[in-house]
């Protein structure tokens, strides 16, 4: 492929038109009508999340009939979350479009090529600059028209590039669906295995109903100032869902369950294999009287209930006394506890492997966009054989 590349603006190759809010006194509704309404909250890069689609009341439809988006258009969000870009599926052709998004229509190049270009680093960097200006930044229609686009003069090359990127997106979507399915399987296994409704082969011993406080001891973490932290590689576990930093000295070694103690994520349950510094969290350590992973998965099964046990106002807290009374079903045999844990860990390992593949696929796609949408790498013509 050796054709020239052109530099044009969005306004040169498409018309840019705004969306429209509903007339005063009307509101979108869950009850379906012939008039779906696409909001920014329904948008994801590349397409639409359809699970929350709402509809225009039939009495209001005529007033906004000129603000519809077609399957051959591209949306771009211009208020709230800026710069979401994608297309709608064919069965939503003609849906009404929110006033917080614009549509590119009558597009004079390959539609998907333009969509991917609007998602690429040069355009998104321009949009990022707008996000930092003002409390409620707005992406103006004129600004969208002025975005510069580099595109091959040959439509066939545009299509070829878009096709390669669609294939990469297809792999990413397939992995995301598979991960979601595996998570659903894990949740089902937890509900069956951690309650004794389903027993693993070879086990028939008694189960008992206990409270968490009957089985484990929960220990509070220790304060750690920035000056004390040092520059080591030991993760500091505080109130969030991810480590708050690193230090050079642990206060927990071995395998440890952590429960975030304060903040919006108070009650978040995690488990760590190696040394950690437990700060704004509570911990449960390994014991010869129970299988730690069984306790971890039992807590995961009750994660929503732990969140609901938060106390405090603006700064929620979870203390040991909040979780000790929680009921747990468990086999008296530690061997059966361990066998159940192994089944669930195997599923976790599968999910982790898929997540690594997904991360790799996303990185490859990003690299493809940087190479293919700049012309640094050209796709060769298919040779008829």
From TrEMBL:
Secretion signal span: none
Gene3D superfamilies: Bipartite methylase S protein (1.10.287.1120), DNA methylase specificity domains (3.90.220.20)
InterPro entries per the UniProt record, alphabetical: Restrct_endonuc_typeI_TRD (IPR000055), Restrct_endonuc_typeI_TRD_sf (IPR044946), Type-I_RS_S_subunit (IPR052021)
Coiled coil: 161-192, 344-371
Gene Ontology biological process terms, A to Z: DNA restriction-modification system
Keywords (A to Z) from UniProt: Coiled coil, DNA-binding, Restriction system
Keyword hit for Phosphoprotein: no
Residue ranges occupied by any Type I restriction modification DNA specificity domain in the UniProt entry: 4-182, 207-357
Family listed: Belongs to the type-I restriction system S methylase family.
Name of this chain's protein: Type I restriction modification DNA specificity domain-containing protein
Protein source organism: Bifidobacterium crudilactis
